TrEMBL record:
Domain ACT: 326-402
Co-factor requirement: pyridoxal 5'-phosphate
Family affiliation: Belongs to the serine/threonine dehydratase family.
Matches recorded under NCBIfam families: ilvA_1Cterm, PRK07334.1
GO biological process: isoleucine biosynthetic process; L-serine catabolic process; L-threonine catabolic process
A GO term, aspect molecular function: pyridoxal phosphate binding
Keyword Lyase: yes
Pfam family of the protein (one): PALP
Protein name: Threonine ammonia-lyase
The reaction(s) this protein catalyses: L-serine = pyruvate + NH4(+)
Keywords: Lyase, Pyridoxal phosphate
């Protein structure tokens, strides 16, 4: 058995009215920043904040009456869990979810709010998946795999239908890969509608299992990643066959690019994406020259990110761009010196956020003090201007690196 275009169009009919036909918008600010032409499909607008509810709902509709009564079980890092839980609750189908123990709290809380029975088990998705198989057999539940299931894949494929219906001019699609259900579904729909379209899959370093399996390389190393939604060590058997047949290229991006993508989407487009949800943007940031002259479609496929984590990403982005810096300066320990020092920074356009005043340590001369100043700037060139102004004013200063 394999995924078919007819299965995707049938899924689209089942989902009509229950899942949003999300908009595809021209990402004008992002395109200008990258020097590319980019359109974004906003799956973050779905009720559960992710594309995953498409596949989950389609699979629920395919259950027999007996299977509906007994309930379903799945392993998920969060978004598949929320989609299954929400639509299970809506349709009156009991849902049990196995989640890795380190799953972000925001995803656990949202899934619980939709009425699912949550089992936190395993250190990663592979261990949670093994537990879901065991519990399914013990309790007589139907396993709804997050990606290696034809019904789930067909549901995700409805994104491809919508993309090329709304934007038939697109000639390249850049799609994240975890287990491969999203890319396999979109690839099946897109290649049927437009055989010449270029399909690029994106994986994060340490979890590039699909690429490695297709190229017969050893299993990836794993590790911690911001893109936990695509942190899959073993891709699907069904998804692998579709991707091998239809996808033109799979690229791997570094963890730093994922973080940068979340920051970039927030700052350029005023949109929120989780790490895995911004993987397509990460690929464009990593290698814009590979997409020059093409009309690119990608999606923000998930927006369920912890607020504290998002805050840290945005602050780290300011540091990375030189817009939030720490400068160490030497001042004479005399009345009024700190005021003059602050005045130099203010006239140079810097905004002081925090000052740490050191005068008691033995490596500082007795009549001198050392100031560590955190300040907001306009970027690297502005930092150089501030340092020059401080040094010219008699305050020897240097930039402190990370």
């Amino acid at each position: 058995m394999t995924l078919t275009f007819d299965a995707i169009t049938a899924a689209a009919e089942r989902l009509r009215g229950a899942v949003l036909h999300t908009p595809t918008v021209d990402a004008l600010a992002l395109s200008a920043k990258l020097g590319l032409t980019v359109a974004l499909k906003l799956e973050t607008l779905q009720r559960t904040g992710s594309f995953k509810e498409r596949g989950a709902l389609n699979r629920l509709h395919l259950l027999s009456a007996d299977a509906r009564a007994k309930g379903v079980i799945a392993a998920s890092a969060g978004n598949h869990a929320q989609g299954l839980a929400y639509h299970g609750q809506r349709l009156g189908i009991p849902v049990t979810i196995c989640m890795p123990a380190h799953t972000p709290f925001v995803k656990v809380a949202k899934t619980a709010r939709y009425g699912a029975n949550i089992v936190l088990i395993g250190k990663d998705f592979s261990e949670s998946e093994a537990a879901s198989h065991r519990l399914a057999a013990e309790r007589g539940l139907t396993l709804v795999h997050p990606y290696d299931d034809l019904g789930v894949m067909a549901g995700q494929g409805t994104i491809g239908l919508e993309l090329l219906t709304d934007r038939p001019d697109l000639d390249t699609l850049v799609i994240p890969i975890g287990g491969g259900g999203l890319l396999a579904g979109i690839a099946c729909a897109a290649k049927h509608l437009k055989p010449t379209i270029r399909l690029v899959g994106v994986q994060v370093q340490g979890f590039d299992a699909m690429r490695r399996q297709l190229q017969h390389e050893p299993q990836p190393a794993g590790g911690m990643t911001l893109a936990e939604g695509i942190a899959v060590k073993t891709p699907g058997f069904l998804t692998r066959a579709v991707i091998a047949d239809l996808v033109d290229e799979i690229i791997t991006v570094e963890e730093e690019r994922i973080e940068q993508a979340v920051q970039t989407v927030a700052e350029t487009q005023n949109l929120i994406a989780e790490g895995a949800g911004a993987a397509g943007i990460a690929a464009l940031l990593a290698s814009p020259e590979s997409f020059t002259g093409q009309k690119i479609g990608t999606l923000l496929c998930g927006g369920n990110i912890d607020a504290r984590l998002l805050s840290s990403i945005l602050m780290r982005g300011l540091v990375r761009d030189g817009r939030l810096v720490r400068i160490r300066s030497e001042l004479g320990d005399l009345p009024g010196t700190l005021s003059r020092y602050s005045d130099v920074i203010g006239k140079a356009g810097g905004n002081i956020v925090e000052v740490h005043h050191q005068r008691m340590f033995l490596d500082v001369p007795i009549k001198q003090t050392e100031i560590d100043t955190m300040m907001e700037t306009r970027g690297a060139d502005h930092v150089r201007d501030i340092l020059e102004a401080l040094n010219e004013a008699g305050f020897p200063s240097r930039l402190l690196t990370d």
